[in-house]
Amino acid sequence: MRILVLGRTGYLGRHVVAHLRGLPDATVTAAGRAAGGGPRLDLACDPPERLAKTLAEAAPDAVVNCAGATGGDAVTLAEVNARGPAALCAALRQAAPRARLVHLGSAAEYGPGEQGTRATESAATRPLGPYGATKLAGTAAVSASGLDAVVLRVGNPVGPGAPPTGLPGRVAALLRDAGPGPDAVLRLGDLSAYRDFVDVRDVARAVVLAVTAPGPLPPVLNIGGGRAVQVRDLVHRLARRAGFGGRIEEDTGGSARSAAVSWQCSDITAAAGALGWRPAYCLEESLAALWGDGGGDTPGPEGGRAP
Fold first, then answer.
1. Which of 45, 62, 212, 250 would you label with 219, given CA atoms 20 to 30 Å apart?
2. Regarding beta strands 229-230 and 194-195, do their DSSP bridges make them parallel or antiparallel, or are they unpaired?
3. Which InterPro entries match (predicted)?
């Protein structure tokens, strides 16, 4: 089985590549915008004809799109998260129409949830910011492509190697800089919101199952922890894990995003039925791996570092 992974250098992409390379009889090719180690592909800029040529040369049985932008201005987000998947689908229809496409979406596509509820795949999508809106546009392009495609709508990833661009990785970096002393101070924004955290290794395992599942899959599947955790609880758990003895100061004024999106939680029942997937790691295990990892190298299939 030939598998092409796009977005090889990102947080999710590195874990996905490592897990897929554990499959027997699979040839995994990792592509990205930067040169080195595989084909160079830039979904934000490359015309579909160029993408189609590269895809035809790779002749994949499956394509996994981990490429995406979580930050930047609205134009950058639109180019990567909306234009990118649309161009990829156009190229696949031309060069590899029978290949399965597994695209990583985001729970941010749902927007604010109702307190105490879990969003199913049929829930209304009401993203409030450019990130969620552009990810939703990418999902729409994939779902309407006519390809053998599935969107894995991923919650808030956490675990080994989490980057400082996301909250868990940023808090871990701040804790390392602050040190364990009693005079240390950790200053953070509003921590009152609830989010659905999922271990990055569980996300990678879901991708493996989606790539290898027989027959067609539902157009969208939620991949999350299946429960809402208050961000404040995550921060304090990570601080205890780090042996932090100082103070955590929270901006009690709140933020516009936390106030508008105070609750996000995904119903993961459909993924269990379609893929036989459930989270294997609890939040405490994810935080232990994050802190013990040190934000380091490419992970192996079980979350350790690959040689």
1. 45
2. antiparallel
3. Epimerase_deHydtase, NAD(P)-bd_dom_sf
pLDDT in tens, 29-79: 999 887 666 788 899 999 989 999 999 999 999 999 999 999 999 999 999
Quickly tell me which residue has 């981990």 as its tokens: 66
- The predicted-structure confidence for 174-186, as pLDDT tens digits, reads as follows 999 998 888 899 9
In tens, the pLDDT along 1-17 reads 999 999 988 999 999 99
Asked if 131 is an active-site residue, the reply is: yes
Report how far residue 151's alpha carbon sits from residue 148's, in angstroms, rounded to the nearest whole number. Answer: 11
Number of structural domains, the chain?
A: 1
Taking alpha carbons only, the member of 213, 204, 83 closest to residue 148 is 213
Residue 100 lies in a domain: yes
199-241 residue pLDDT tens: 999 999 999 999 999 989 999 999 999 999 999 999 999 999 9
Of the candidates 246, 260, 256, the residue with the CA atom closest to the CA atom of residue 187 = 246
In a domain, 301, yes or no: no
Q: What is the CATH classification number for the domain harbouring 52?
A: 3.40.50.720
Q: Is residue 307 part of a domain?
A: no
CA distance 91 to 57: 12
At position 218, the amino acid (one-letter code) is P
207/66 Cα distance (integer angstroms): 10
The DSSP H or E segment spanning 260 is helix 256-260
Amino acid, res. 160: P
d(CA 259, CA 69): 23
CA–CA gap between residue 151 and residue 165 (Å, rounded): 23
Q: Are 161 and 300 in contact (CB under 8 A)?
A: no
Please state the φ and ψ torsions of residue 173, each to the nearest 5 degrees.
-65, -40
Q: Which domain does 161 fall in, by range?
A: 2-293
Q: pTM score, two decimals? A: 0.92
| Domain contains 303 | no
